[in-house]
Write a structure and sequence with these properties.
Layout lengths: L48 H17 L4 E3 L3 H9 L4 E4 L8 H9 L2 E4 L12 H5 L1 E3 L15 E5 L7 E2 H10 L5 E4 L2 E2 L8 E5 L5 H4 L2 E6 L3 H10 L3 E3 L8 H11 L4 E2 L9 H9 L3 H5 L6 H14 L5
Helix pairs in contact: 2-3
Amino acid sequence: MGTLAQIDTAAAPGPVLDLPDDRLDAAFDGRDGAAERPQAFHYAPLNHPGIRARMGRIAAWAAAHDPALMIVDVSCEVALFARLLSVPTLVVRLSGTRTDPPHLEAFRAATRLLAPFPEALDGGDVPDWVRAKTLYGGFLGAEPSASDADGRIVVVYGRGGEGGSLAQLAEAAAAVPERDWHVLGPVSGDGPCPPNLHRHGWVADVRPHLAPAALVVGGAGDGLVTAVAGGAKRFLCLPEPRAYGEQEAKAEGLARLGAAIVQTEWPAAHAWPGLVARALALDPARIAGLADPGALARTAAAIDALCGASGPA
């Protein structure tokens, strides 16, 4: 269930419940800006018919189907609403500093929490009771993949960031001319490119492009880190700004484990030869050790067990 009106759900593996849009406007950032909003919520605007219809549809579905468990993808409001509906929840907990009142109350209301990353990457600012309530799913879908590196450097930009700068990429590739640079994702700007710089734009699946990489450069988003771990790739991590320091926290964990070289901003041209040398000296077994091939099956079994354990409490 979710806001699915603009999404093709024909291939969905089960029933689909489309919910009315709850956004205030096109520039929606997940907050309503209300000074008098209850502290348990991030987003609770008044006089919004979409939210009223949305919550009504969730309540009607719960009353009709008597669910054993609802998996809540990070929404504090839905987690608390499900508790009011007497529905057990497995609430997804992302990385970062999420100790604000809405997150903590959603965590408290949940039956269990699901962290889609290994426990070794959890930050040090997480309360003990939150850790104890968390099922660490690991990198879900991080299946080991065959790798035959040819020495190239692959730079990946995802959808959530600003993309790359052609001028900066050209400087970096020129500073390390002995290696081919392949760039996936959006790049802005015009100008000359060194012959070892290759742009691919958007690609449907980054993994075939990562397979020949000797080094991957990119942010600390879940998708890329999962793919890098599954492919046992040396990683130069450039965490991008995200709410609650999500990518910064994951990058700090990778650095702490010796699984990546981390830079907080795009390096200057003269720094690239040294950074590439340091990154290529990483032991790829460190990041590969974070990829559990059985993570998906183990997490599914834990969800089944939670459903089986449902009952009045």
